[in-house]
Amino acid sequence: MNNVTGLTGTSTADLLKQKSKIDTPSTGGEAFANQLKSALNEVNELQENKEVAVADLATGQVKDLHQAAIAIGKAELSMKLMLEIRNKALNAYKEIGRTQL
Asked: What averages of pLDDT result for each successive group of 10 residues across the chain (101 residues)?
């Protein structure tokens, strides 16, 4: 028989107090905006790398075809992901707008 001792239950009120200490609305919004800005900057950087790789391919200056193909693939996937996230966010916004209060 396994006896577990020393465990105490946590009430909902205690959990809510802990949550309010961890995550305040102003900090959460700013953190989300910073994350979003960082992700967009990363997508932009990958797109710039892709443009350089494509230009190198066009001019024949490419040193490693495999690395160029990887740069192009990363840029394509990151753009698709960003567009899907945008579409999901817009759908959520529209759904909230349709919600009756």
From this structure: 51 62 62 90 94 92 89 94 94 92 75
Q: DSSP labels for 22-36?
A: H--HHHHHHHHHHHH
Break the chain into its structural domains and give their ranges. 26-98
Q: Work out the number of other CB atoms within 10 angstroms of the CB of residue 79.
A: 15
Residues comprising the chain, all counted: 101
Give per-residue burial for 4-29: e unless 16+ CB within 10 Å, then b.
eeeeeeeeeeeeeeeeeeeeeeeeee
- Alpha-carbon distance of 64 to 57, in angstroms, equals 10
Residue 4 has what DSSP assignment? -
Assigned token pair, 2 = 């396994």
Q: Are 72 and 54 in contact (CB under 8 A)?
A: yes
